[in-house]
Amino acid sequence: MESRQYLSDCYRNCRELVQHLCILTLFEDSPSAQEWRRQVAYRTIVLLRVTMAAIEYRSSSINTWDVTDENLELLTPTTPAHRRLVSVMPSALTPQNQRISKWAHGERTMADENFRAPIVLAYNLREAILVQRNGEYLEKRMHVNEELKILGFVSDYVTAFHGLKKLITAPFPFPLVQMTRTFLFFWVFSLPLVLVHAIPQQPVQVMVIMFFVTYGFLGLEYVSME
């Protein structure tokens, strides 16, 4: 349930970000304003796609940077800070060992490298939102409170992503699952002895009770296994 909530938050924040962006700049109809909105929406979609690829990496083994076009508009530098960031970003054609060494702060795996991709793209999205301050896109720049509202959706998205990452990198401890399952089976198989001793004259009633108890508890166990 927790993972479902985090995933829902990611989708909701992307949708709310684009909708609020369009509403807050509703009266900006110039081609440059339309291009700016398109760029922000495009980067939002790419961020969501790369996030899903990072989450699926352990099962699909598909590198996060390989799920999008290598000629992404997203990587077109628009500011000096963006140029510095893009200069160290791994391309889809870079060997895996070189990718790891570029980002290394010690021992890092490709899974660690893939989890960095959404963080980098979240930075790119924030930059795209604030690039309208240069006056080239909007006739009147957005109010600071409107900017904070839009940036808040990005922050909430990153928070939800870190929640998903926490669940993936720190799974439920398997020894605890084993002990819980052992006690469950022991309790289910020993319960008939107690019921037979408690109501010895009603064997049919004992069998009916045990059927529903076993069906319920073992059913819940199999659901948790799935």
Write the layout of secondary structure elements.
Elements lengths: L1 H23 L6 H30 L19 H8 L8 H8 L6 H21 L13 H26 L4 H25 L4 H23 L1
Catalogue the unreliable spans: 73-79, 81-93
Sheet having the most strands:
none
Morphology call? elongated
Strand content: under 5%
Q: Tell me the Rg in angstroms.
A: 26 Å
Fraction of residues in helix: over 70%
Given the structure, what is the number of helices? 8
Label the structural class. mainly alpha
How many DSSP E strands?
A: 0
Order of helices and strands: HHHHHHHH
Straight-line N-to-C gap: 13 Å
Mean pLDDT across all residues, rounded?
A: 80
Provide key terms for this protein:
226 residues; mainly alpha; 8 helices; 73% helix; elongated
Overview of the structural elements:
The chain is built from 8 helices and no strands. The model is unreliable at 73-79 and 81-93 (pLDDT under 50). 73% of the residues lie in helices and 0% in strands. The chain is an all-alpha fold and 226 residues long. Helix 1 runs antiparallel to helix 2 (31-60) and helix 2 (31-60) packs antiparallel against helix 5. The two termini are 13 Å apart.
Give a summary of the structure in a few sentences.
This protein has 226 residues and is mainly alpha-helical. Helices cover 73% and strands 0% of the residues.
